[in-house]
Structure prediction request, 853 residues.
Amino acid sequence: MSKKSEKPRGEMISFMLNGAQVQADPKWSLLEAIQFYGISIPTLCHDEGLTPYGVCRLCVVEVGNGSRTKIVASCMHPVTEGLNVRTHSNRVIKTRKMILELLIARCPSSKKLQDMAAMLELKEVRFDPLNDDCILCGLCVRMCEEQMIAKAIGYAGRGTQRYITTPFDMTTDECRKCGACMYICPVIELRCQGPQAETTLCSGCINTEPVCAPIYGEAMCFMVPCLSCVKKPEDVK
Amino acid sequence: MKLSSVKELEDLRKKIQSRRDPDKPCIAVCGGPGCLAKQCLQVRDEFIKEISAKGLKNNVDIRTTGCHGYCERGPIALIFPQGIFYQRLSIDDVAEIVDNTIINNKIVPRLLYSDVEAKQVIEKENDIPFYKKQTRLILGNNSMIDPHSIEDYLAIGGYSALGKVLGSMKSFEVLEDIKKSGLRGRGGGGFHTGRKWESTRDAPGDIKYVICNADEGDPGAFMDRSILEGNPHSVLEGMIIGAYTIGSSEGYVYVRNEYPLALKNVTFAIKQARELGLLGNNILGSGFSFDVKVNRGGGAFVCGESTALMASLEGKPGEPRAKYIHTSEKGLWDKPSNLNNVETWANVPMIINKGSEWYSGIGTESSKGTKVFSLVGKINNTGLVEVPMGMTLREIIFDIGGGIPGGKAFKAVQTGGPSGGCIPEEHLDIPVDYERLTEVGSMMGSGGMIVMDEDTCMVDLAKYFTNFLEEESCGKCVPCREGLRRMGEILKDITQGKGSMEDLLLIEDLAGMLKDASLCGLGITAANPVMSTLKYFRDEYVAHITDHKCPAGVCRELITYGIDPDNCTGCGLCKKNCPPEAISGERKQTHVLDTEKCIKCGICYDVCKFDAVRKE
Prediction:
């Protein structure tokens, strides 16, 4: 049995975070505990409301003592008693920078990635740009499945051929065009798809009155204006 | 007929053994993958035809067995009871063997193994240098068994370990035995099997699973395939014992779908075991129930990774997940699951039967027992070898493997599959065990062993394996997907002479990140081929980058062909074979190669009998 389950309900466990003894709820992930103590570490594929996926690997931290340390993804790692965690060791910073360099090379135009690069002081990208739009963080897929209960999109292909799409790349009824995927996408720089998309500046048509309720009946609109509902029903193909 | 007690099992065994005449001639034709490719089934059919034509149908047994290991010499047939080893058979040899050996008890020397050095022919399997140094605990039974016959397996003592466990051992005693034996996972990780079983056994939960990983996908490796094809019952017996120890009632065998014969044989074996009551409810009247299902692999290399395999078993895409919570606590369908490799399971019955002390007496301090390696590449004796842990690489490659063909020099050996490292000559004397291979930058892996000679370009090799892993990466995590893509690009540049010395630093950065940050074992080990070649063959990388030369003459962009006028006899063979017609010259006059037209296919180099084509 793991140490975690031996603890009585509600009891906190203590571990070392950057040299300080801290307490955490055993149900937390390491990332949640780190964020609770106000330490900022970059993440791309993590969202509070979704199951952790652990693929962007930017939230890596170093755990362990002495020479027996290892790098783990904090969003997936449980908090365990006596764990020694360093969130900004040289090895961690080096790893994060390399990962970000790879991501920017894939998706050079993303503002989010550019900001992150400034924060991590990444100054040079040594690879040829790919000019892709998607970093495959999978937030949209989980959003669609877990919060929108739609499962309208998923992954296709393997390895470098992997991409996110609807089943068989076709339009389906599963997709209610709620726009949640676009809302959660961290690197979206998609041009606004509003009614005057061709002629107006992006966001120029913001409609603060949500129109999705009358269209989608009882469907709950979870989001601050997601901009997708500015589409009129007849625009929706 | 269902056996309802251990005694009934032993009675059945005695009955089978008493029916068998040890002096009855038996022809055991190897039906392993190597021999199958060399038409061994036609040879077997010819034996059947010849035997019935001579009216010996009831006096001679013909058995199609699993792999005998010596694939280089296939098709192989062993003639019992004498144990004569006939090799490189064709259907024309069959009548001669039947006439001489079976009927007149005379040997056919022409078909025996001939030792070039000692200038003699060798009659018995165990005297052949290839077999002499091996300890064939797992593979040895392959030649005694028809994989479709549970009687064959029972006759050589099969399922006696199961009888012993169910009849007289408590599950914790079995666990103690396995722990004491020092058996470690044969799939690559080398985790202690006993400890793995213990943590699954101790994990809370009623439903637990045992899984056999038979998704062997390494290029050039066929160890698990040969065990599962040749002796599937040994794997099943191991699994039943494991399930009894752990407290599981359901098991899965995840077989690579590209192994149709393994799939067929294991499915057949499960059916036979069920019929005898060795699988199912209340096995041998012990009250313990266990059954096994076969699952065909999803066709991805990464499905051999334990969490990806379990995802695939659940019907999801075969993608790994983080293993911070072990599969022994939350595995298949979030239930405690124990996954072991085919070879690991096949070791279990042996340990129970002969005892943990006997088993831990074989091998080194930290690695016990034997290990099957598939010896391939530039080596004289291609095939499967099983050696005790701790044998040196030199013994395996030169004494068992017979060295490098064509008098070429040894360059490196890659152990552990595509994500293993290349070990150069200077480290050939290290004993093979889990720790020592890791120390020199490689790994045990599942036991692939690819030997390379002086004609291999190490940069090109690193590129090949990086591309393989890039293609087989599931693409879930950034380090593996993007990192390997970039690693492949850099290596491609270097092999085309477009690399720079900064690229080597970048490779090192990428490799460090891959090892630290990847989600699963595929990414973590993916940099091994590059890093080990960079460590031991750095001068080759530098030659590609600074001199724009490929020392081994492999990288097409960096070599030029030319004809040496001193050696050229003007035979015209190169001219005739040149696809772009880049070679010109009159008959019996020195030929000339137009480098503008040359596509560097190397055909002229291969066909020239006078060593007149030069590669630079």
User: Anything to note?
Assistant: Residues 1-5, 200-208, 217-233 of chain A have pLDDT under 50 and may be disordered. The longest helix of chain A spans residues 90-106. Chain A touches chain B at residues 1-2, 5, 54-57, 60, 70-73, 76-78, 91, 94-95, 98-99, 102-103, 105-106, 126-128, 135-136, 155, 157-162 (CB under 8 Å).
